[in-house]
Amino acid sequence: MATQNNDHRDDVIGRANVEDTPELLAYYDELAEYETGALWTVANKIEPWEPQSASVPVVWRYKQLREHVLRSVELVTPEKAGRRVIYLNNPGRRDVSAAVGWIYAGLQVMNPGETATAHRHSASAIRFIMEGEGAYTVVDGHKMTLGHNDFVLTPNGTWHEHAVEADGTPCIWQDGLDIPLVNALEANFFQVHPDLSEPVAYPVDDMTKTWGNPGLTPGGGDWTKGYSPMFKYEWEPTYEALSKYAEATDGSPFDGVMMDYVNPVTNGPVMQTMGASMQLLRPGEHTKAHRHTGSYLYHVAKGSGHSVINGKRYDWEEKDIFCVPSWAWHEHANGSENEDAVLFCLNDLPVMRSLGLYREEALGDNKGNQPVIGA
Amino acid sequence: MATQNNDHRDDVIGRANVEDTPELLAYYDELAEYETGALWTVANKIEPWEPQSASVPVVWRYKQLREHVLRSVELVTPEKAGRRVIYLNNPGRRDVSAAVGWIYAGLQVMNPGETATAHRHSASAIRFIMEGEGAYTVVDGHKMTLGHNDFVLTPNGTWHEHAVEADGTPCIWQDGLDIPLVNALEANFFQVHPDLSEPVAYPVDDMTKTWGNPGLTPGGGDWTKGYSPMFKYEWEPTYEALSKYAEATDGSPFDGVMMDYVNPVTNGPVMQTMGASMQLLRPGEHTKAHRHTGSYLYHVAKGSGHSVINGKRYDWEEKDIFCVPSWAWHEHANGSENEDAVLFCLNDLPVMRSLGLYREEALGDNKGNQPVIGA
Amino acid sequence: MATQNNDHRDDVIGRANVEDTPELLAYYDELAEYETGALWTVANKIEPWEPQSASVPVVWRYKQLREHVLRSVELVTPEKAGRRVIYLNNPGRRDVSAAVGWIYAGLQVMNPGETATAHRHSASAIRFIMEGEGAYTVVDGHKMTLGHNDFVLTPNGTWHEHAVEADGTPCIWQDGLDIPLVNALEANFFQVHPDLSEPVAYPVDDMTKTWGNPGLTPGGGDWTKGYSPMFKYEWEPTYEALSKYAEATDGSPFDGVMMDYVNPVTNGPVMQTMGASMQLLRPGEHTKAHRHTGSYLYHVAKGSGHSVINGKRYDWEEKDIFCVPSWAWHEHANGSENEDAVLFCLNDLPVMRSLGLYREEALGDNKGNQPVIGA
Amino acid sequence: MATQNNDHRDDVIGRANVEDTPELLAYYDELAEYETGALWTVANKIEPWEPQSASVPVVWRYKQLREHVLRSVELVTPEKAGRRVIYLNNPGRRDVSAAVGWIYAGLQVMNPGETATAHRHSASAIRFIMEGEGAYTVVDGHKMTLGHNDFVLTPNGTWHEHAVEADGTPCIWQDGLDIPLVNALEANFFQVHPDLSEPVAYPVDDMTKTWGNPGLTPGGGDWTKGYSPMFKYEWEPTYEALSKYAEATDGSPFDGVMMDYVNPVTNGPVMQTMGASMQLLRPGEHTKAHRHTGSYLYHVAKGSGHSVINGKRYDWEEKDIFCVPSWAWHEHANGSENEDAVLFCLNDLPVMRSLGLYREEALGDNKGNQPVIGA
């Protein structure tokens, strides 16, 4: 006979609150025979009052990780490993190998002269370049040279391969993918390129030269795919854009001077499952706290400071990565009185918005800042 | 020391194939200290060649379930149970109480004179009416009378309550919700209405009278929400539409004469996370097999027949419910040579499409039909 | 020397008010040599304070016109005339043969057994059927049978031909076209079908059967053209829709119970240059006055009554046609205390909206109704 | 009795070809009494085989016009003239004061320290800066500094005023407006600002700093108006964009390396009635001929060369303006073997596209180039 766990009872009008009885337990057994159950035994569990993220806040410190990333070069060959990547494994998401929510992230390293096998998958990927010279990516025949803090797309379904020129230096970048989400949605396909490599079919960096121009679009240009044709967003124009925008805006109380990377054809997110933004915290700026649905993975592009997440302080410096789980209170502070701090952010906001699930709340108490636990 | 499971090795170029060594196991332990891991130990697992659905095909037979549904009325009170619902519990999805994929479904029963507490949640819901007289739903103040095979929406964020008029009969309907998905996305909120009930604020059935007219929209009508303003789709005009469309089309080789329920403002899906369609199989029709991403839950609105899912035959008759998991081969057959068979279908296609993950494949072998196992 | 007309002077700050002088007149002559002029000589003329329509209100009475329309059958052959049409020639728009603004309209007659030559043009056309049995239209191979008060599209660029079955009766319908607009925009092309006729390629009335269903769209249906795929909107379902909608709405204070004909794929106008609506005035209803940009041509589909346009009363009865010029005050009154009155309306609202030029104003004085001149 | 002009007869099947007879002329008289006419008397005129533009090609040479523009400063005061503008008066469009088609253009001059009265109108305007220092425009409170070849919007309905700083120099720019179109559509409204001037309410150039960034949009930025929020498009980044794009494309056979100015929110035209583009002809480049619907007004931003329009050669140099009427064959040639030539173009393409009237044709004969008359 079933030993029903009725630990989901809730003594509130409109909620389930049914005590187990022998008769009910027998009934539950019968229901199980037909692959069914009684809703009131699980209703309160599957209809929570508000989101309880499985993810926990983590800061991954580059200072600590860098040597381990480099060591992977000695430990495994690209042939055996496919790619040499140390992935960020959120303690609450180990079952799906996610850094936060449904987002996977890792630090990949590649030596000069190495080339990864060309492949494609339904998962979408981004790269954010951390160090090294000579890295490049080829996406559907478009070759892109990669520099410090450049942001690059390898969207859903595109053939792509990564490499470092023979005269380059060891290169490290952050990979970000929606693999956990696409797996959960049972929609992931993976293919290795039949030739293991793909030919470069266009002038180098042509997509950025064609689509990355302010207020101008290529005449007769036609692009209807679900992702941005501007595969690479370089750091210099991005930082310049933030600096110009900073002259024209007070910024967001929660995020400082923030800009979203966009598909220039739609002004919407760069890909359908992942969005990205870059935000500048002015010297000494400390933002107000808010929370929203959606999982966020921050990468410190410039400067240092700290964030307060669900009442706990997390310090960060350049190249560190940290996460903010869904519906967690968070606020950011630039630690310098003289320099900008700039945060790159990868998130699943496009999913929240496409599905009508985005929700946001400002902290009203305490002048908008969280009391810090232990502070 | 870690006992690494390297059971995800794959001896194919471009895939991970790293053997455990003491040195690597030590390395994996170090990585774990920093909440990280080595991608090549999980890469093949998280990047499968194609989707492997956790769900299994099931037919829930109304003949078997009806008495159990009715018995719940005797076993629990609405006050204690919240709602008296027997939910469909797919053997592969018991952890999330889903009928298939990320879709929850149940059979709800309500007696004359009963009213459920008004509430709202981020999850979206549909109802498909199975039997009884006098049921009605109120959605954001719009009251709708419900009849056999009517399809009704209670979208994300709307206040709603269900009831049966005092002079009605016991009513049973299918509920369908995206609760598992919204929970997984960590975006579910739940509220009981402060007054436990909501007032009826508009003429009865006004939304269908306003928005449910062929080729005509209310003058000055303005609707920008993410879901259809036509909250109720009645059976008679739906069946008439199918019959008319059948005169104008050969139909789909895979789905017969199929129409999608739409938001009349966008011609897109009725809600952002769930779609629905109704398909008519002509007398004697047996469709070809195809497979696609997305999870499907069928409800037999009329007639009888069978489906072949991943090579196995499943018979169904009126009011039965059955599921087709993501990427499962499937084909349908009307069992009658004289009567139409009509299938109502609830699915997560809007999620697949919004996120760029829809993919479809026709079966090329065997003239497009699956060999049936054991047949 | 130029005799400058300086009758456009306006003694208001910010307006041009330059007196002719000999020196200026000489200057104007020099400018003319280079195909230029001085803006201040025409500025006030080309920048009016508000629109002054060239069109005047007219009622075309079917009682008067019918016999003349029928007489054209005796007077000219279809071979010589192309089509036998009496067009509505607004006194203010004779230069462009328009009924109002940039809209052309005419009454066409066709005898049983006659067929017009198939042709196409960049101008878009509508037909509204007035009397007779057996008329049909073929649009891009889709044949449509036509009945009383049916509304039919022959959009921009589609091959079309009109005919009456041999066993029919003489048929009269209203044609409406954007010919004057498309000519003014220098974008009109005209072609006679190389075979003079086009084959019927689909089941009769297939487009209405496929696309004219409330809240349902054909599965896999794909339509991206700029006009509605639902080529025919029949009178019965239209009148039924108005009647149902009347139960759910108070209606517009200016237009009664009004519904717009829409492209079901976009919920927008049926064509890019012309819109249409149908409005029901309840027994005894007399609407408030408003005015807006855009030209309107009304056709009395049912009942009788009057409209007040720019302060003058215009009576109308079934099958009469009347126009309201851009920015003219107008209000409508049903003349019956027992019967509905229903007005079909053809307009250029899609042009106004697409170009950002729509503007509307309610009459505030006199409780919202115009004083009637001479009343 | 009417003296019918039957000069529109056309002896082609499907066209009208009715000879006047006394009986018909009497009939025409009767029709005229009811404000109607017989279609066959005008059908061929109003349904031409293809567009016949009323506009003629013209080159307005800056060398000739500049002194006349400057002289207007001596001849009229801003108070009397409103604005000192010499407008381009196409010989075929004098009735509507248009430069080509429905586009008005003029050369405006303003002295240091002068300010024009703030006003707004339903017509949309652009400015293209030709010479001088210190000019600025204020649009809805947003002040923009203006430099050589900058392109600026003053959209439909926005308050705007133009001025030159007291320490500037005399400034000349091209104005372009859709006044003739908006008048023809009977939708033009004009208002002088109640305070004659509008306050500057934002940081200088804030809209360009906010919206003019490649691949980045302001976080939380929300813009739903029908025109671009990027009111100013500066010359330097535009020319840089063309140069970069030139590295990535072969260019169009008809237009060289062409980019369209866009509303960054939609990637569509900057305003709903007028579009603009900038095209670079490489040294020695001579394009192929094509024709399309829509009226084009070119302004030579850099370099010199010639265009062939409907078989006639028109030479141009920097700051010259020339027009290409609708459906006129045209091709362009850079006159230099060493320098780029760059053409700014203002057009009504958004109207053509919104209304479904765009049509294009390449010249097939003579290897794609027109024989030049008299060459």
UniProtKB/TrEMBL annotation, chains A, B, C, D:
Gene3D superfamilies the record matches: Jelly Rolls
Q: Does the keyword Oxidoreductase apply?
A: yes
Alphabetized Pfam families for the sequence: Cupin_2
Domain called Cupin type-2: residue spans: 107-173, 279-345
GO function terms (MF aspect): dioxygenase activity
Q: Which domain of life is it from?
A: Bacteria
Q: Keywords, A to Z?
A: Dioxygenase, Oxidoreductase
Protein name in the entry: Cupin domain-containing protein
Organism of provenance: Sulfitobacter aestuariivivens
